[in-house]
């Protein structure tokens, strides 16, 4: 058995007297998709930021198995190492594409940035890779020189995904990746993410309040309430046979289409 | 004969927190086993908990007590105690499930939906597609539909895609939850054919079949689930 | 320093306008800048008796390094005789009483706006650049906290994104001035809006090069004989601007040319932007096709 990719050990974050999240422990293996569900203010995003090193925990540790095989506490990484990790072996897909894209840079430049960041200095290669990634996320490669401002919401999300995946990360954090999109656009995006995750063997930590998204994409799910994980397990088990009162409420509150 | 599935002391009750914590007992002390090449059918009236037992075995429902031992890589593994990761591995390589309904994956063509478990079982993309095509042919799904996503198919057509998908893997244990419910006689016969062929190869089956005819043709044994009815229910 | 004060500057001013404390502060920033080539050192930029954009950064650097023995040359876009150059030269003539010149080889300090002289600079000379925006990363990353971190960690992928965008839009790197450079293999630096034609002159230059940004309160430096590399792509290498014509006045083929409109009928000519260089060549007997004797100079054409 190989070591887990990501280990959360007793994570806690407090905002003054208020609890951001507490007592969160789990491991994530390569290729595993973990959904974090719960309503707004339940601590999902705080946890995501603790896991991705964007926020330092008040208690506990997040560890990650680096590409060289060594598992390191994120807090022990230098800022340079952490940033390098974040733009090579990790991805981060934001709900708001403007946070994850450079809106005044062309699609090709957005995709190429990570490559240039790790030293690729061949324009032709960078462009070819960008074109290939546009195709993979179902964007017409002839749009390569357009800026994201000229893209629809769904296209921006797909571009954001391409921009992240170009360095073949092993772990991608997603914060409500389909939030705010039309239902039909959502379905297409989810299908794309599902395919890419399976093809590339990505591990994903997915924050969503949409249980259908969790069901479609994730293997396992953590249910959060008031900053704590109140239930976890196999996604279909948690959604079909919820145990905790809050999970039962959450599941029963979903409108059946 | 090799035991593939061994259930003992299995118990399930739903606790309805949203309804004042009402406890709804389903089954208790469930015990039976299924061997390689055998087809065991769960019997009993609807509401007796047959589906719940299947779902517990598949890991979809949480058992309150008992063990569900499944032969996985020549080791008996307890599904009740297994980590989610192990349950997923068991589902991928050992235990297949065919439900009453196809859970539609948007935009994916029927042939790919069927081929996916074959790929997961180690077939090459090409071989997986061939295997899928063979199954869809056996189940009389017109070839013109193969390249289309099944969301627009009729109930019977969707169900045949669902069955084909269930049989596309090489699982040694198959759980069938009324797979023939929406099929006509010809297609029911085709499903019986599939089951018989896989039994001959040593696959163990555990299923629910409401159709008398199908049940008689595939069942080696019938386990009456009312035997495991909880005491409280009798008292009620 | 006190020796410098008893010169023929106007007694109302301290030597070179700035007080000695301020000059010391600026010198410390300059020393730090020289020690860390290409790194932008913050300094407490003073209000100067001229508006921002007129060279307040360069003037403060010049004031801090100027000695009474120095000979000052000031150029603006290569010319010694434009408003900016003339007033800064007059400013130091008045406040420091130093000798001024237009001849590049006679100057010990050359303050420049947007050009490097054509004549090769010497070890005893200092070139002081006026800088409007010192941060090369700002184009794509407006957050100063982020650009500083990027410098600290040498994360310069973004600079290439800028060049990528150029090629994607224009088919080639269309940046012709303000062309970013990599200094001593460490910091990426904005060379101020000099034409990229001048970029190669910064590399291995014998003179000390100092950069002052007054509004932005930054000083940076390239010590003598430092490696300065213009950023590029393997398949789109850096190329200095080449001109199709020689200078119309002096016939030079290796200098940076300005386009000068000569009439309202579309007539134009190309002449050296470095006026001192052009005049020197003409004096040495080199002539271009529009050279009509001593009276026709670039100014006359304008």
Characterization of this structure:
The complex is a heterotrimer of chains A (257), B (236) and C (302). Chain A is of the alpha/beta class and 257 residues long. Chain A has helices at 44-51, 79-88, 97-100, 107-117, 123-136, 153-165, 183-200, 211-217, 235-240, 245-252, and strands spanning 6-15, 18-28, 33-37, 59-65, 71-73, 90-93, 171-175, 203-208, 220-225, 228-234. Chain A has ten helices and ten strands. In chain A, a hairpin with a 5-residue loop joins β4 (59-65) and β5. Chain A is globular. By secondary structure, chain B is α/β, with parallel strands linked by helices. Helix content of chain B is 36%, strand content 27%. Chain B is built from eight helices and nine strands. Chain B has helices at 50-58, 84-93, 110-120, 125-138, 155-168, 185-200, 212-218, 231-235, and strands at 3-16, 22-35, 39-43, 65-72, 75-78, 95-98, 173-177, 204-208, 221-224. In chain B, strands 6-7-8-3-9 form a five-stranded parallel beta sheet, with helices on both faces. In chain B, strands 2-1-4-5 form a four-stranded antiparallel beta sheet. In chain B, β1 and β2 form a beta hairpin. In chain B, α3 crosses α4 (125-138) and α4 (125-138) crosses α5. Chain B is globular and about 55 Å long. Mean pLDDT of chain C is 91; it is low at 1-6 and 294-302. The A-C interface holds A 79-80, 83, 102, 104-106, 108-109, 112-118, 121-124, 126-127, 144-145 and C 140, 149, 153, 155, 157-158, 160-161, 164-165, 167-169, 232-236.
